[in-house]
Design goal:
The structure is a single chain. With 249 residues, the chain is mostly helical. It has 11 helices and no strands. Helix 4 packs across helix 10. The protein is elongated. The two termini are 39 Å apart.
């Protein structure tokens, strides 16, 4: 499967470049694989690409950690307050439905053009994804398991620790796979709106100066980062859920 995927990618790039050489594609408007490679090499050699990628990664990962942590903690904590949880559920769902790009300008106004506004946007995006997913995991806890452990004299804390949290783990980890991508989107979109560094900033500058190959280069780097992070979360999912499934108690 991997060989086939690499073959398809290589074939697509070959056809793209051949179209440029044959005059069917204008590199000034559509870019070219060789142009992308040249800009990638120049960006790496000068260190500009690494510096700006590090800024975006820092914004993304910090927003991801804060958002997922707060959202998951809020959803699990509301298990202790079921009436409040039911009251908040539709409000959270409605807020999550707001296009997140619409939140970028207020974040810029409140926190400025620097990294804080991008971290805040990534945090908000991840918070509600994690909250809704963990809340669904809590809602789907098997009541028979709760009744059984309660009949054995377990306290609410024991029910929460040994039934609610382990049962919610698949939902929590699944939210990580979605949140990591959206955190990157939040950071880059925030940089599109207003920034002076980051991958989004590089993309905007490339578009302003009509450097289409450079713009595609930035897109390729963002896609590569997203792919690495996604497969990293998949690896953590297999390891962590396997551990949880075999944990005592």
């Amino acid at each position: 499967m991997l060989a086939a995927q690499i073959g398809l990618l290589a074939g697509g790039l070959t056809l793209w470049q051949a179209g440029c050489w044959a005059g069917l594609i204008n590199p000034l408007k559509g870019g070219s694989p060789t142009g992308i490679a040249q800009f990638l090499w120049a960006g790496l050699a000068s260190g500009i690409l690494v510096q700006n990628a590090a800024v975006t990664l820092g914004e993304e990962l910090l927003g991801f950690a804060i958002g997922v942590g707060l959202g998951t903690a809020a959803a699990l904590g509301l298990w202790w307050l079921p009436n409040l949880s039911r009251a908040l559920a539709p409000l959270i769902a409605i807020f999550n439905g707001i296009p997140k790009i619409a939140l970028a300008p207020p974040m810029i106004v409140w926190f400025g053009i620097f990294e804080t506004s991008k971290i805040a946007l990534a945090t908000i995006i991840c918070l509600f994804i994690a909250w809704l997913s963990a809340a669904e995991g809590v809602r789907r806890v098997d009541p028979d398991n709760i009744d059984m452990i309660r009949a054995m004299g377990a306290s609410r804390w024991h029910i929460f620790r040994y039934i609610v949290v382990p049962s919610s783990l698949p939902w929590i980890v699944s939210a990580l796979k979605v949140s990591i991508g959206f955190a990157l989107v939040g950071a880059v979109v925030g940089e599109f709106v207003a920034s002076n560094r980051g991958l989004g900033y590089l993309a905007v500058q490339a578009a302003i100066f009509f450097q289409i190959s450079k713009l595609w280069m930035v897109v390729v780097v963002i896609a590569a980062i997203a792919a690495v992070q996604y497969f990293g979360v998949l690896w953590l999912e297999r390891r962590f859920l396997h551990w949880a499934a075999n944990a005592p108690g």
